[in-house]
Structure formats: C-alpha cells, structure tokens
Amino acid sequence: MSLDRILIRSAAAAALCATAAAQWTANTTQNTPVCVQPGDQTVNKAAATGDGRTWIGWFDHRGSNYDVYVQLLDRDGNALLAPDGLLVSSNPQDTSLVDWDLISDASGNCVLTFTDIRAGLDLDVYAYKISPTGQLLWGPNGIVLSNNADAEFDPTVAQLSDGAYVFVWSRVPSGTGSLRAQILDQGGTPRFAGGDIALATGTASNEQPAFCDVVDSDGGSFIVAWVRSIASFSSPRHVRTQKYDGNAAALWNGGNPVIVYDAMSVPIAHQPTVLSDSAGGAAYAWHSAPVSLFDCYVQKVSAPGSEVFAHNGVQVSLEANRSKLDPALAYLPASGDLVVLFDRRDSAQNDRGVGVQRISASGARLWGPDGIELEAIDNVTEGFERIVPFGDGAVVSYLQFPVFGSQDSNLLVRRLDATGADVWSPARTTASDAASSKGRPVLLTDSIGTCRLVWQDQRNDLGDIYAQDVHYDGTVGPITTCTATTYCSALPNSAGSGAHIGWSGSTSLALDNLTLTAEGCPPSVTALFFYGASATAGTPFGSGLLCSAGSTYRLAALQTSAAGQAAFKVDLLNPFNPAGLITPGSTWHFQLWYSDPAAGPTVNTTDALKASFCQ
Question: What is the pLDDT of residue 282?
C-alpha cells in the first residue's frame, strides 16, 4: 500500500489512446508498459493475487476527467483485461487527487476504494469489486460508502478473516473530525445499514484524526493506525492505534486508543505504517524530529493491546549527525523480527543515502547500532525506499538519481539475507534504467517468489504506468528458470481419464513454500509423491507411466481426498530422505504414485513435474 500523500493538479486533455501490450521483458530500458496512453496516468496502486498475477490501478487523464482504470497481469506479464486497462469509473473527479487504496482478496478479485465528486463538490467515498475477468461485481457505479456535505479523504481497505471487507477513511469538517468505517460482505451489503459509523479514536474537541491505515486481525477484527489530529499546524500529531471487532467496537485499552508515539508531533502529512503480525497484533513505523535531526522508530502492539517495546518505540538507527526518514517496514512472521529500510541524509538534508536495520522480536538492533549502509550519503540521490519480506530476509528497492540535478532516475533492487548481506552478485539489480523521471514505485511479492515493481514514468509524456519483474536470483524478464513445468502423460484410471500433478508456491529454497498437488485420482486411496534426478519419456509402470528416473526418493505417504485430490508441502530444507537434498541450481522430476483398487487392483501415476530450484 502506497504511503505517498498526493496532490496533483489537472493536466491538459489527452488525444486518442495508443494500445499498450504487456509481457515481462529483459530490456530494462524498455520495461513492461501497463498504460502508455497520451495524458497523465498517475497515483498508481498494485496488489499481488498470491498466484503470480498482479492487479494494477491508476487515475487516468486520457480525456477531460481523471477516470479510474485497472489492469490484471498474469505471472508472465501478459495483460488479461483490455489492453488500455479496464475503465472502472468515469464519474466526475476533483482535479486535486487524494490517496486511495486497492487490494486483491482471497479469491483473486480486485477491491478498490476512492473518492470523487459525483454527488457534489465535497469528496465522498465509493468502493468497487472486480473479478479477474473484468466483471464489476458491485455494479457499474460501485457501492456508496459515504454521502454527506463534509470532505472525506484517503480511504483504505482490508479483507477480514471472515471474508468481509472493512473500509476506513477520515472525515474532515470545519470542526471536530472523525475516522469513519463501513464493512461490506462479499456481495456488497453493508454491515452498518444506517451508513458509515465513527470509530472510537479518543478524539478531543476540534481535533481531526487523519492519515489512517487499516489491516486485518484475528476473529474478524481489524486494526487501524492514524495521526491524532491535523486540525492546525500546531496540532498534537501523535501516532495512535486501536483494534476493533467485527461490529467496530474498540477492543484495546478499555476503548481508548493505544498511544504509539507522543514524544512530539510527527511531521505535517506524514503517514505512519502499520502491518499485521498475523497473530492478532501489529507492527508500526514512523519518523519524527525530536531535536533537529529526523529519526525513524518502530513499535509492536500485541494481540491484547500492550506495547511490546518501550513507549515511543525503538529508534532504528543511532548514527550520529544524520537524519533518518521515510521508514519502509517488513514483518517476518517466523521470527517476529522487523526489517526497516530508510532514507539517510546529512544534517543539511542535501546529500542522501540508504540504510537498513533489523529489529528483533524483543526490540534489539540486530544489524549494529547504526544499521547497515546500502548506499553512501553523497550527491547521488536515492529515495522512494520500498521493502518486502523474502524468506528470512528481504527484497528492497529504491530510486537512484545518478546525475546531480537531473530528474532521470534508475529503479534498483537488492535482496538481503538474514544477516543483511547481499544475496545477489552484483548486489544491485536494475529494474529500470530508462532515461526518465519515475515516481510512486510499488514493490510486490507473493508465494511464487517473483517480485514485481509498478511505477509512474514520464519517458513519453506527463506520466505512464510501467512494470517489471525481478526473479529470485536477481534476473529480470520472462520466467524461464527457477520454475516448474509438466511433461509426460497421465493414463486413464477408475476415476476417469487420468490424474494430473500440479504445484503452488515457488521453487525458491529461501521461501521453502513448494506444495505438490494432484487431481483426478480415485477417492480415498493411498498415494505418495516421489522425485528423481532425471526424466524419461514414460515407461510402463502398473497402469501408468514412470516419467521420473535416476536416483529416486519418495515423500511421506498420504491419502487422497473424497474428491480424488492430493496435496503435500515439500520441506525443501529437511528432505524425507537426506540423500535427496534439493540444492540451488538443481532440477528434479516429481510424480504421484497412487493405488487404484477399483481398476484391477493396480497402481497408477500422474503425469510429471520438472522443477528447477533457486536460492
């Protein structure tokens, strides 16, 4: 979710649009065009579906209005919707755009929320849900979340554990403001039939809470972080948080917000980061300037609502005479550690660099008091730092401006291991070095382990949307290695035409999330997956074909389901047979053996899966 706070003035109307074709390319001066139409495409968002597809959304000034468009790319970078993007909304939009949000839900649908002026000059909030085939599931005009005379800003959305969707935004009238919420079920029916409701935030008279974000939590609950008040320059801009149940009742601290940071005010228009810890609590990051220099801080709040670190958080870096700003946060659920990427600047904030730090589950700075320097502080400027977890480490990205004073920038990516050391050699992978001004990059990854970047790019005009993939090993372009493909044949069985092997997750040893699957098997029979070092075209084996040969190793036995399906999570780091250890750069061939008593009795096999593995 982007943390940028946006203010964009209208641009000139565009001419007719050109068609953009999408597919991952290895040419980093070209990249994958998502939308390259005349006019201004801007305020881009992106979300990963979990199976390698990528939803991308943006505001589009190809005509006389800032319309909302989306696109869905498959795992190979091909556009699955209209080449120019799917038009979601052409309702009247203010030329001063505010932030908005877009997610992919558990079913791979796109859920988005934004403001516009279709009902009057004040901003109201709307929500849409779009299927992977481009159907507007909540109707052509979406769902009205608010309709009143007050200005409302920056709506955010999360899917709850019960499948519903929670939307949170700020209402900023002339007096006391509030955070507002609405919850929609899968079909778009509001949980609060009387309209959006005010969240309990502990707001005093004349305060205006804002810059909110929401994440899902346990048992259908959700957690919101926000800045206490933006009513004036001197407002107490403290970071607060609260957990709410499925009816939006406050759960923490007797209904009062948990004060994450109140040592002093955070800067004007600063957006704190909040991430779910997948255990009912959350992690937070922000920056502030207690004296003359900025510092970054992190905090964790447990499921019951207690601060895990000391009040006002852990200072990420103690480096002297340096400002540290714009922390990007990754949470590692296996350890409970946090990895923080941040902008480093000299005391005058002229020269800039990049640092990274790992904070343990108990609040210790694991990578030294100052963190690790990724880029030196000099006149080669860096910015727009982004981070995602990757195994027990992280993948980071940032823009670098190699020529002082020029707006042209390169988009760089690095992968760090558990110690903060670079995994790739050379350390930096260039995702884009097109001679252009770039902005608002979004960095994504999911279970397939391929990272995707989406950004706004001015190589052609006021702004287009481009994307690029980066693989486990730091290469870019078409996915040809570190993946899996099926081969050989499945012969008929008592359940039908044959059983077929599949897979989910990735073939990255760092992610260790490969799951073998099969379907079309006889119901409730004994089966086991096995793998071998080489492939054969298929030799007779029971009623099936043996397509895996050489040194062969079996995995644990299992039973197919009543629907004739099977699934097995492969422990890549601790094999069932130590002799069958899977190493980076190796290729193995998997099949499922299963009994088929109704056919003879006999045994049979699926077709085969050839998998190449990466670090």
Answer: 98
Unique residue bearing structure tokens 């005349």: 38
Check whether 1 has a pLDDT greater than 60. no
Q: Which of 140, 95, 135, 86 is nearest to 116 (CA)?
A: 95
Beta bridge partners of 540: 545
Q: Is the pLDDT of residue 434 over 70?
A: yes
Give the mean pLDDT of 410-434.
97
Angle at 18 between CA 13 and CA 22, to 5 degrees: 125
| Of 212, 117, 208, the residue nearest 167 (C-alpha) | 212
pLDDT band, residue 560 (cuts 50/70/90): very high
Amino acid at 614: C
304 burial (CB, 10 Å; 0-12 / 13-18 / 19+) is exposed
Per residue in 309-338, pLDDT (tens digit) is: 999 999 999 999 999 999 999 999 999 999
> Are 536 and 550 a contacting pair, CB within 8 Å?
no
d(CA 23, CA 216): 33
Q: What is the DSSP string of 287-310?
A: EE-SSSS-EEEEEEE-TTS-BSSS
| Pair 287, 327: CB distance under 8 Å | yes
Residue from 600, 459, 603 nearest 30 by CA: 459
Q: For tokens 């070209």, name the residue.
A: 30
Query: For residue 533, what is the domain's CATH number?
Result: 2.60.40.10
pLDDT number for residue 35: 97
In sequence order, what E strands does 96-249 have? 101-104, 110-116, 124-130, 143-144, 151-159, 165-172, 178-184, 197-198, 210-216, 222-227, 239-244
Confidence class of residue 2 from pLDDT cuts 50, 70 and 90? very low
358 within 8 A of 334, measured Cβ to Cβ: no
Percent share of the chain, pLDDT over 70: 96
Q: Say whether the peptide bond before residue 601 is cis (omega within 30 degrees of 0).
A: yes
Q: Which residues does residue 138 pair with via DSSP β-bridges, in sequence order?
A: none
Q: Kindly state whether residue 88 falls inside one of the protein's structural domains.
A: no
Report whether pLDDT(18) > 50. Answer: no
Q: Which residue has the tokens 């110690």?
A: 419
Kindly state whether residue 278 falls inside one of the protein's structural domains: no
Give me 547's structure tokens.
């397509």
- Give residue-wise pLDDT tens across range 251-266: 999 999 999 999 999 9
pLDDT at residue 3 tops 70 = no
Q: Contact 521/493 with Cβ under 8 angstroms?
A: yes
DSSP 8-state class, residue 40: B
- Largest Cα–Cα separation, the chain: 82
408: in domain: no
What was the pLDDT predicted at 254?
Answer: 96
Is 170 strand, coil or helix? strand
Q: What is the pLDDT of residue 22?
A: 56
Output the CA–CA distances (angstroms, integers) from residue 605 to 503, 560, 566, 583, in the order listed: 16, 13, 13, 26
What is the Cα–Cα distance from 326 to 288, expressed in whole angstroms?
10
**Number of domains forming the structure of the chain:** 1
Q: 557 is in which domain, residue-wise? A: 484-612
Note whether residue 398 is domain-resident.
no
Q: What is the mean pLDDT of the chain?
A: 93
Is the separation of the CB atoms in 172 and 180 below 8 Å?
A: no
- DSSP E strands, 560-586: 566-569
